[in-house]
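User: Structure please.
Assistant: Input sequence and predicted structure:
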Amino acid sequence: MKYFLIAGEASGDLHGSNLMAALKKQDAEAEFCFLGGGLMQKQGGKLVKHYREMAFMGFIPVLLNLGTILRNMKTCNEEIIGFRPDALILIDYPGFNLKVAKYIKTHTQIPVYYYISPKVWAWKEYRVKSFKKYVDEMLSILPFEVDFYKKHNYHIHYVGNPLADAVANFKEENKGDTRDKFILENKLANKPVIALLAGSRRQEIKDNLPAMLESVAEFTAYQPVVAGAPAIEADYYKKYIGDKPCEIVFGQTYRLLEYAEAALVTSGTATLEAALFRVPQVVCYETPIPRIVYWVFKNLLHTKYISLVNLIAGKTVVQELFAKFFSVEAIRNETDKLLNDSAYRNKMLSEYDEIINIQGKPGASGIAAKIIIEKLHR
């Protein structure tokens, strides 16, 4: 069968590639056409657009690039119709994907599957109406989403979290790896590592990396190492690193987490990845007009947390230093606790184990692929 997939950012590329691999295992004749990245490209098929050409975040960047976004959408719709897939599979990225879903459902008979629900339980809850109209099956990776959608009378499938698959696959494929090898190959100092995961978009890096670097500067017994995002060049990071003692590693985020003593993480998928690797972390996310942003978060959004770790646990496991709580001093103090307060570290690690148990065993990609294929055969 033929599958058209759309992933608009690095995490979607990862999950899309794992889903493609699972589809190939269960469908020997699988053909792919997609908007995504290098990981999906390795699975084979036609890459229509790389996600780096689509990653616009925030009102102003979207407004300034509206022409490009509309052209991308037009190209995408034309490619889908020309490819004539048996299934359209959308991966998160709601602003773009929901518009594509609407167009395809109103102009074709192609079934639409949504893998990884957008976070409508946090805001834009009205989008559930669009899912009901334009999405045939929703495949969820977060357990609490089942109850959320149930109250809207919308049946979804909980398939488990594909990050558990990605981490399990990494550990299996890297059994012979060692910390010494990681240090040597990347020409790092022989010091414990503090991982800096400053996001996958330029704006996130610009906003968060300088404060992260400043906050860890006094921990001279450790070395900060930045996880380079796949679509960002090294020179962009170096603008903010300057002459500070900090290295960048690309394509090795999981290796970095495997050997890190602590992590400073911009909210998103990376918070759960750090938990799955059992790395004590602090969530850092700077925003413009921080007090107003925090008021909006507390009064208009429908969630108590911004990190996947705390959302899954249903309580504060990791500190979320965002909006009005974001400062170099606050990040520094929390980092000190992560590194030097053993009781604090151990409590966080114990709560990570509970989250890992809630997520369930690896296999989300295979379950999602099975549901899609079975539904198509019916």
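Residues 166-359 form a domain with the Rossmann fold fold (CATH 3.40.50.2000).
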